[in-house]
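Inverse folding, one chain.
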């Protein structure tokens, strides 16, 4: 089974609030694999907005994107790219 892990830092000033969390969910749902996001020991489902909100990730927080299954590498990189671009925010 294919696995991928990508580390990424939150760069947008407001952190991982509702709109960016929704963007992650939309991106994650494009892929058939299991995708998780970790903040330290807390690991949540990237396809659940409520789970992502529990991460309480502020600007500067390092997250780990974990994907397992079909298109895992592509999925992890797509979500990491979204985060690195600051979700289109200033």
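Residues assigned per position:
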């Amino acid at each position: 089974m294919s696995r991928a892990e990508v580390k990424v830092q939150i760069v947008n000033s407001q952190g991982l609030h509702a709109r960016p969390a929704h963007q992650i969910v939309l991106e994650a749902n494009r892929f058939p694999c299991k995708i998780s996001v970790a903040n330290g020991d807390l690991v949540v489902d990237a396809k659940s907005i409520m789970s992502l909100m529990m991460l309480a990730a502020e600007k500067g927080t390092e997250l780990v994107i974990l994907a397992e299954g079909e298109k895992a590498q592509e999925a992890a990189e797509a979500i990491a790219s979204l985060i690195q671009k600051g979700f289109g925010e200033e």
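The longest helix spans residues 72-84. The chain has three helices and four strands.
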